[in-house]
User: What shape does this take?
Amino acid sequence: MLNTNEQRLVEFLLQCHPGQPKTRGTWEVDHQGIPFLLPAIGGITLNVQAGDPAFGWAGDHIEPGVSCTADTMKPFEHPNVGLQIFSCAGNTATVATGEAKGAEGRVLGHHGGSEHVIVDFPRDIKEKLLYSDTIIIRGKGQGLKLTDYPAIALFNLDPALLHTMKIRELEGGVLEVPVTTLVPAVCMGSGIGSAHVAKGDYDIMTSDAETVSEYGIDKIRLGDFVALLDHDNRYGRAYRKGAITIGIVIHSDCLEAGHGPGVTTLMTCASPLIKPVINPAANIADLLGIGTILKG
Assistant: This one.
């Protein structure tokens, strides 16, 4: 087992509620200049969950499961900023009110474009939820460190999820991390240049069909762990040759230029101390037994 500082982490109770589906209320234009009007961010999304394809939906930036917010009127202020930063992938979320009271889900990650924390619940639980219901997230993971690998930084990762990721320790201080997809640096788009990665996400651009096919990007599932090649996320999102970042896919493909499946950062290093290895089941749904599990 990887040695961590998890016994010293601070754990918060974070209060939120489902956020209504959002729209800009007008036509948008895709990367080929074609107008579209489709479902987008937010909502209690009944028929999309972790483990489902990130591609093929009649939508744009679709967030699987339940899109949670602390304050609809202040998406980029307190308390939403705290909810985003302290909610980590793998955290337990419990419905505290209403017909679904007591039901548990899991945090997938957070979406910067909407300031939503995305939580996976089974469909039968989502059918019982109201937008006025309260959800409590056990926020734990920010500040997590690998004590034997100081050059590898962790963000947005519940230690319990870390220990399910089937990471292997190799010689030379290298960690082998299972992922479903290797994403070339040239594909990373919206979100590059952010000051830090403890909230929000950034997108895998999918406007070039040849590159999408070459790297199998169109096979990505929601909840996949993916490797972003030559990207250093330690102090923001930036290109650095030889760097590796591991992230989790938290929203669907997009039609707008510069956008695509969104990725919340989990692990990053400036040099190739992370060795990604392909495993089609490297997905939070398969590891935790939630959502749509890959049938082998």
In short: The first strand starts at residue 12 and ends at 18. The chain has two domains: 9-139, 153-288. Residues 80-86 form the longest helix (7 residues).
